[in-house]
Specification:
With 267 residues, this protein is an all-alpha fold. The protein has ten helices and two strands; from the N terminus they run H-H-H-H-E-H-H-H-H-H-H-E. It folds into two domains: 61 residues, no CATH class; 201 residues, no CATH class. The termini are far apart.
Length: 267
């Protein structure tokens, strides 16, 4: 088994130069993405370098307070990112996203480190932070897709929803089809990923372990665990966010509060 190979600065430069391919395609087809591409690449480098510096200290201290503080910061940023992708919004949507992300991802992460992996202490940063990060990154996509689908369907189907309510349906009965479609939309990406993992793509964690010299069998076992953790967190987070959104848009008198929906402005 080959040992881990540390990348040099020149290796990063060579890899970075490959971004020029994207720029050439954009210029050739007149896509106008050159500046956005340069900005995205710059942000990628700066953000990852800053995270690398911070994590060096977090891993060195390995203090429960520091780990929880960093995890909380990650959760807040993930909630902001999820809400930013939603077109039709309501006032408390960020809070709902934060609650759904935090409860689902922290619960699954705690189960993973305490019962599945069983590392001691449970807050060991080399386990807790990467696991939480992977779950947040996938769950925020599910929440963004699910809530965006819910609010979009309800906004576009206002007459249909209010028609059901006028005929005596409860709020849940009027919104049930939209809720189901929203949760389904949020869960589909991870289900599709699970269907082709290993056959079409090698996920990031498995690839990283293989590059680090871990045996393929051990890398596969870890990846199986990660896929199941992501699927569980995405299902819980998406369902919670969609139901919280539903509760915000209907009152106890079974009235549809469509005036609370506002479409995102700007690019």
């Amino acid at each position: 088994m080959n040992s881990y190979i540390e990348l040099s600065a020149s290796s990063l430069v060579v890899a970075g130069s490959l971004i020029a391919v994207n720029g050439i395609i954009s210029l050739a087809l007149g896509l106008g993405l050159e500046r956005r591409l340069l900005w995205a690449a710059t942000r990628t480098v700066v953000q990852l370098l800053l995270v690398g510096v911070v994590l060096q200290y977090v891993f060195h201290w390995a203090h429960v307070g520091v780990v929880l503080l960093w995890g909380t910061a990650m959760t807040v940023v993930a909630a902001l990112s999820a809400v930013d992708r939603i077109q039709h919004r309501y006032r408390a949507i960020w809070w709902d996203g934060l609650v759904a992300l935090g409860c689902s991802n922290w619960l699954i992460t705690l189960v993973a480190v305490a019962a599945v992996i069983g590392n001691r202490p449970w807050y060991a940063p080399q386990f807790f932070i990467p696991l939480l990060g992977m779950l947040l990154g996938n769950t925020l996509n599910g929440i963004a897709l699910g809530v965006d689908r819910l609010t979009g369907l309800l906004a576009q189907g206002r007459q249909r929803v209010e028609g059901f309510l006028a005929l005596g349906a409860t709020a849940y009965e009027a919104a049930e089809e939209s809720i189901r479609e929203a949760v389904r939309t949020g869960m589909l990406p991870i289900i599709n990923s699970m269907s082709v993992v290993g056959l079409v793509s090698l996920p990031g964690m498995m690839t990283g372990q293989l590059l680090a010299g871990v045996s393929p069998w051990n890398a596969v076992k870890y990846q199986i665990v990660i896929m199941f953790l992501i699927a569980s967190a995405t299902a819980l987070g998406t369902t919670a966010a969609v139901l919280l959104g539903y509760r915000r848009l209907f009152n106890r008198k079974h009235q549809f509060l469509v005036h609370r929906l506002r479409k995102k402005t700007g690019s």
